[in-house]
Design goal:
The chain is mainly alpha-helical and 319 residues long. 70% of the residues lie in helices and 4% in strands. The chain contains eleven helices and four strands. It has helices at 2-42, 49-64, 73-76, 88-111, 119-141, 168-190, 192-209, 215-236, 246-261, 266-285, 292-306, and strands spanning 67-68, 81-82, 157-160, 164-167. The strands form two sheets. It has a two-stranded antiparallel sheet with strand order 1-2. The chain has a two-stranded antiparallel ribbon with strand order 3-4. The longest helix is centred in the N-terminal third of the chain and has 41 residues, at 2-42. The mean pLDDT is 89.
């Protein structure tokens, strides 16, 4: 009987780690899928992707409720709070639309001028843009962390077989991520739009000779990638406090996810994101929290030593 109880407890612990890993990995996946389609299609290294995540989180806060202001320039001007209180569902709808438009503007007025420039130039301009957004938000809203309340319909625990009580919103994050990633995958793989984008990636000159303009599909791809980052900010906000540093904190794991999975491979980003999230949670819950960041870098190094093109990448992806 004791062995049976121990076995159930062990199974419950394993399943809890896997579920928490799926949730943590889901945030990485949302960010990485957007990064991957931009990098794989447009060959553009967007270090401002974390800033789009940051904007998504703050826009989500603004839309869902009233946020008190204790410091920052707005507080000095006498503004005590900000927000319109439309609720979480409204944030899930409005934020990706707004960040999609921001992505379109970014592609047209920033990225487009750097497509034929070296990667270092792309990194410098986008990282500089990210710092501007981060410090602007810090100056206006202050640097203190703001709690992002979970939606009322997804707050509290839910009883799961074997596992027991598990946070309902963590399951919500996994579900939302799955729906969005499947939608983007279907768009890229099974629509005329996706075929044009893929053809342009392989041989843009031939596609142009056939009379197809690639500027608009590329613009939409950039917007979709930005929108995914914005959604990640909304769904990831309730899992931790929101502050101006969260964009840069999420950027490096997102890039690791892209590189490990294979540049331009949506399915690779999913596999890599879930691997990194599960490893990170495993190290935290087994008492090695201080090594959780080191662990994902070590895993990335090992995989790239064995497969420089990533888990599901091809030699073409790194040529």
């Amino acid at each position: 009987m004791r062995w049976g109880e121990s076995g159930v407890t062990l199974l419950a612990d394993i399943l809890t780690i896997l579920l928490n890993g799926l949730q943590q990995g889901a945030i990485y996946v949302l960010l990485a899928v957007g990064l991957s389609i931009i990098l794989g299609t447009l060959k553009f290294v967007n270090f401002a992707h974390g800033a789009l995540y940051l904007l998504g989180a703050y826009l989500g806060l603004f839309i869902t409720g009233q946020v008190p202001l204790n410091n920052g320039q707005l507080a000095e001007w006498g503004i005590q709070s900000y927000g319109i209180g439309l609720g979480f569902i409204a944030a899930l709808i409005i934020v990706p639309i707004v960040v999609f438009v921001i992505g379109l503007l970014m592609e047209r007025f920033v990225a487009q001028a750097f497509y034929d420039r070296p990667d270092t130039d792309q990194i410098l301009v986008t990282f500089g843009l990210a710092i501007i957004v981060q410090e602007l938000l810090r100056a206006l809203l202050g640097g203190s962390s703001q709690p992002f309340p979970q939606p009322s319909w997804a707050s509290g625990p839910i009883a799961l077989p074997v596992v027991g009580n598990f946070p309902r919103w963590r399951l919500g994050v996994i579900a939302i991520t799955a729906v969005l990633v499947l939608g983007v995958y279907g768009l890229v793989e099974y629509t005329d739009f996706g075929l044009i984008v893929q053809a342009g990636t392989l041989d843009g000159e031939m596609v142009r000779l056939l009379g197809i303009k690639l500027s608009r599909p590329y613009l939409v791809v950039f917007g979709i990638g930005a929108a995914l980052a914005g959604v990640a900010g909304v769904v990831g906000g309730p899992l931790a406090n929101v502050n101006p540093n969260i964009g840069t904190e999420q950027l490096v794991p997102a890039f690791l996810t892209v590189v490990i999975g294979g540049v331009g491979k949506i399915e690779g980003a999913v596999v890599a994101g879930l691997m990194l999230g599960t490893l990170q949670v495993l190290l935290i819950q087994t008492g090695y929290a201080a090594w959780s960041q080191v662990g994902i870098y070590a895993l990335a190094a090992i995989i790239l030593l064995v497969r420089p093109q990533g888990l599901l990448g091809s030699e073409v992806d790194v040529s």
